[in-house]
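User: Sequence in, structure out. Go.
Assistant: Echoing your sequence, followed by the C-alpha cells.
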Amino acid sequence: MTSPVTVIGLGPMGATMARTFLANGHPTTVWNRTASKAAPLVEQGATLAATMADALAASELVVISQTDYQAMYDSIGDADVKGRVLVNLSSGSPDELRRAGDWARGHGADLLTGGVMVPPPGIGQPGSYVFYSGPEAVLDRHRATLAELGDTTFVGTDPGLSMLYYQSQLYLFWSTLVSYMHAVALLGTAGVSAQQFRPFASGTLEALTGDGPMGFLRILTEEIDAGAFPGGANSLRMQAVGADHVVEASREAGIDDAGPLALRDLFWRTVEAGHGADGLSSVIDLIRRPRREGGA
C-alpha cells in the first residue's frame, strides 16, 4: 500500500508534485487558497480538502509548496499540525527556515525543509534532486515517498542548511549562465553568433569542472580548504588588470558593464587587502568579509 500524501499549494511546482504522487499510486489530498486550481488534479483522482483541517487530517505527510514561509503560517492558521510531518519546499532565508523548525516543534509537528533543484517539469524525472534538512529519522521514514519527486539529498539537521545549499546552487547556476550571456553579447557586437562561441564556452566549463591537471574547480577547492592561495606566475593583481580590460571592452562595445564591473571591483578590493601576489582563490577572503556601510 502506498502512503497517503497531502499537498498544500498548487502552483506549477505543487501541482506537478501532486500529479507525481498520484501517478505513483498515492492517495493524494490537495488544498489551495484558490480551490478552482485543484480541478485538473481532482479529475485525475486527487481529493480536494474543503478546509485546512481536513487537509492535515488526511495524511501524516504534508508537502508544502507555496510562495514563501509566511504563506504556510497564513494557510495553516489555527489548524492542528500535531503529529504531522511538514515538508516545506518553499523558498525563504536560512534563518526563516530555522524559525519555522522551532514553530513546528512548538506545535507538536516535525519540519523537513527542502530546496528543489529542478524546475516543475523536472519533478520526478531522472536527474532531479531535492536538498533536505531537519530530523534525519523523519526523512528516512518518508524517504521512499519523497524520492518520487527526486533524489533525497540529506545535508544536515540544521533546518536552514537545505536553503543554503539551494541558494548556493542557484547563485552558481545563474551567475554562470549570465556570464555566458555577457560573453555572447560582447562577441555579438563583432558579428559572432552564440552558436559560433558555444564550443569554446563548453570547453571552458569542462576545464573548470574536470578532474585533470587543469581542473580549476578542484584546484580552487583544495586551496580554499587549505587556506593557501598560491599565485606564482598568475597573480591576482595580473587578473585584476585583465578584469579592467573586460570592463573597457564592454564599454567600448556599448553593452551593459555591471557584471564585469562588480567582478573587477571585487578583484581590486582583494588586491588592496594584501592578496595581490596571491592567486584567484584568495578572493574568498574578501567574500567572507561583511561589506562595511557605504559599500567599502
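User: And one key feature?
Assistant: Residues 68 and 248 are 41 Å apart (CA to CA).
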